[in-house]
Amino acid sequence: MNRPLLISDDTDLVDDVLRLSSAHGVDLHLAPDPESARARWPGAPMVLVGADAADAVVAARLARRRDVVLVTRGASEQAWRDAVALGAEHVAALPEAERWLIDRLADCDEGPPRAGRIVAVLGSGGGAGASTFAGTLGVVAASRGLRSLLVDADPTAGGLDVLLGIEDVPGIRWPDLLESRGRIGAEALRDALPQCQGASVLSWGRQGPASMPAASIDAVLDAGSRGFDLVVVDLVRQIDPTAESVLARAHEAVIVASGHVRSLAAAARLAALVGDRAASTSVILRGDGRLDDAILGALGAPVLARLPGRPRAAAHADEGEPPSVRDAYAKACLAVLRALAREEAA
């Protein structure tokens, strides 16, 4: 894999940047001047230009590119002028920017970010089928070649790993991550989590607290956005600090409701609460019952799809079987996945 490029002949600055890169095991290509860096300039995942080399890099007339960072000691007006001349996206003024620079170098070590789409799933009541939908959506996405991450954000629901039949599969669970603060490596997370038919699953174990710090879910979503194509979050119905954090970052909030009057009324109420917090909100109806336009209009959010019933879901979970990716329910989830992709492209 291409390594980040550092252009500088300032020994002290080079030593500082090498110390920071080694904190995450990231190797750098070193170049004392722009001519020795010219061959690597276009393909490096990130270019760090020392303040001592800024004028020479500008004079070398290297092609403009993204992910150029000017590294200096202390912010100054001259540093910002140099950054503009370089076309740099950021000025990393050491030592204040050390943590930021370590994180950026670590991102390079993971390869190009995937900008994963975050979908928050909520049920309009117990038995609405939100967890079944969330789990199947993630597994279906994995079956189509997408890197998918399933996040169980409801510590009181019994565990998404149980529903998916992977309770006994080794891997980390939420209690292992609750002390995490700041950055989590996306590749490290993917390697550590149990999988269900290719989908990575972060669930609750049988032990642990009944809540999680908002900082923990933020760190997981940040890693999920960098390292996965799709992040599906199975949310608790109440709008607590965890739900607030997820909805603020979600590209889509999906409310799953049955065709019963009480479930539809709850969905309408939930749509009003979620609509003020999420970028986009839609409803998925479970079952084949006919509903008139007046009822659908009262939901306060568009109906994205209808899902057929899955009467054997509970039995399959009891038997430790993962959800099918070929039955009618899975095909309906695939249609939802395609609809979400169309919304993203629009």
Provide structural commentary.
The chain has 346 residues and is α/β, with parallel strands linked by helices. It has two domains: 5-109, Response regulator (Rossmann fold, 3-Layer(aba) Sandwich); 117-345, P-loop containing nucleotide triphosphate hydrolases (Rossmann fold, 3-Layer(aba) Sandwich), CATH 3.40.50.300. The protein is built from 14 helices and 13 strands. The protein has helices at 11-22, 34-37, 54-59, 77-86, 98-109, 130-143, 160-163, 186-192, 214-227, 241-249, 261-275, 293-297, 313-318, 328-345, and strands at 5-7, 29-31, 47-50, 68-73, 90-94, 117-123, 148-153, 195-196, 199-202, 230-235, 252-258, 281-286, 303-307. The strands form two sheets. The chain has an eight-stranded mixed beta sheet, sandwiched between helices. The chain has a five-stranded parallel beta sheet with strand order 2-1-3-4-5, with helices on both faces. Strand 11, helix 11 and strand 12 form a beta-alpha-beta unit. Helix 6 (130-143) crosses helix 14 (328-345) and helix 9 runs parallel beside helix 10 (241-249).
Question: Would you summarize the structure shown here?
Answer:
This protein is an alpha/beta fold. The chain has helices spanning 11-22, 34-37, 54-59, 77-86, 98-109, 130-143, 160-163, 186-192, 214-227, 241-249, 261-275, 293-297, 313-318, 328-345, and strands spanning 5-7, 29-31, 47-50, 68-73, 90-94, 117-123, 148-153, 195-196, 199-202, 230-235, 252-258, 281-286, 303-307.
Q: What order do the helices and strands come in, and which of them pair?
A:
Blueprint: E1 5-7, H1 11-22, E2 29-31, H2 34-37, E3 47-50, H3 54-59, E4 68-73, H4 77-86, E5 90-94, H5 98-109, E6 117-123, H6 130-143, E7 148-153, H7 160-163, H8 186-192, E8 195-196, E9 199-202, H9 214-227, E10 230-235, H10 241-249, E11 252-258, H11 261-275, E12 281-286, H12 293-297, E13 303-307, H13 313-318, H14 328-345
Parallel strand pairs: 1-2, 1-3, 3-4, 4-5, 6-10, 6-11, 7-9, 7-10, 11-12, 12-13
Antiparallel strand pairs: 8-9
Helix pairs in contact: 6-14, 8-9, 9-10
